[in-house]
Amino acid sequence: MAFKFIPGIDYIYPSGGSSGQAFVYRGDRLLVKTTDQGPAPLAADDLDGTLPIAGTQRLALGRIGGEICWAHRLGDDWQPPPDWHFEGLRNLFGRLADAPMAAAGYGLQIVKWLEAHRFCGRCGAPTALGRGARMLQCTGCDHILFPQVSPAVIVAVVSKGRLLLARAGRFAGRMFSVIAGYVEPGETLEECVRREVSEEVGLQIGRIRYFGSQPWPFTGSLMVAFTAMHTGGAIAVDHNEILEAGWFAPQDLPEIPGKMSIARQLIDWFVAQYGTNRI
Ligand SMILES: [Zn+2]
């Protein structure tokens, strides 16, 4: 079972019914049931008479297994019952099934987008959910807004059987990862890959190959992943975004990101290609 968009469905439709799963947010955290098997998504009918959601907008996200799933946003002045709790979305990776996790990530981006676009940037009038498409429309000038996605690249650079890993100032602890950065307007993905590697660690690269992509709900990004080979230059970190960087053999990796990220999928690809004795 997968989470799927439904062609032609907008965030309002269908207005009735309370079947399916419900994704209720407070900030970046999701309301889940506390069960012996771990956190579980709420069913839409769990909310009947339970939440102070009257007057808040309920958003149709898409379908899981034929049933509509919904997103809600809650204020701070409500405490969940003892067998429900709020949990950060990152902590739920691997503990919720793939379909509700995908819906939860999408729903989080949509509720954050709605909150940030309550008024039209062109004329200042309030916006409202549009009909017939997943969009907001200005009530004053009819300006249309679609949810924003920020493309970003992430690249595994290899040299002589070793992988380039860097420690960014924003990372927790001693974690190292592959190079990543946001695409500038007017830039191709390949140009962005070359620029980010050059800016952050001073290297030239070639043989840039597409690897895969992953939506990243926490920043509203679409991560587009590549592999590449080092072709010139020595590591020179910028000491701004990147604090240290180096070449790592498959059997000698530092602390790396968790399994949920495409960064880790790139590192696992490197180990599968160049390593023999590490899983
Ligand atoms: Zn307007």
Please name the CATH architecture of the largest domain.
Alpha-Beta Complex
Helicity level, as a percent range? 10-25%
Q: Ends: how far apart?
A: 28 Å
Q: State the order of secondary-structure elements, H for helix, E for strand.
A: EEEEEEEEHHEEEEEEHEEEH
User: What is the CATH level 1 assignment of the largest domain?
Assistant: Alpha Beta
Give me the CATH fold name of the largest domain.
Nucleoside Triphosphate Pyrophosphohydrolase
- Please identify which CATH superfamily of the largest domain we are dealing with: Nucleoside Triphosphate Pyrophosphohydrolase
| Biggest beta sheet attributes | 8 strands, mixed
Total discrete domains: 3
Strand percent estimate:
35-45%
Radius of gyration, CA atoms, in whole angstroms: 22 Å
How does the overall form come out from the CA principal axes? globular
Which stretches are low in confidence, meaning pLDDT under 50 for 5 or more residues running?
none
Topology, please?
Layout: E1 3-4, E2 21-26, E3 29-35, E4 38-40, E5 42-43, E6 59-64, E7 67-73, E8 84-88, H1 89-92, H2 98-116, E9 127-129, E10 136-138, E11 144-145, E12 150-159, E13 162-168, E14 179-182, H3 189-201, E15 204-216, E16 221-232, E17 242-248, H4 262-274
Parallel strand pairs: 2-7, 12-16
Antiparallel strand pairs: 1-6, 2-3, 2-5, 3-4, 3-8, 6-7, 9-10, 10-11, 12-13, 12-14, 13-17, 15-16
The protein binds zinc ion.
Would you write up a description of this structure?
This protein is of the alpha+beta class and 279 residues long. It folds into three domains: 3-116, Nucleoside Triphosphate Pyrophosphohydrolase, CATH 3.90.79; 117-146, no CATH class; 150-274, Nucleoside Triphosphate Pyrophosphohydrolase, CATH 3.90.79. The chain has helices at residues 89-92, 98-116, 189-201, 262-274; strands spanning 3-4, 21-26, 29-35, 38-40, 42-43, 59-64, 67-73, 84-88, 127-129, 136-138, 144-145, 150-159, 162-168, 179-182, 204-216, 221-232, 242-248. Strands 1, 2, 3, 4, 5, 6, 7 and 8 form an eight-stranded mixed beta sheet that branches. Strands 12, 13, 14, 15, 16 and 17 form a six-stranded mixed beta sheet that branches. The chain is globular, with a radius of gyration of 22 Å. The model has no long low-confidence stretch (mean pLDDT 90). Zinc ion is lined by residues 120, 122-123, 125, 138, 140-141, 143.
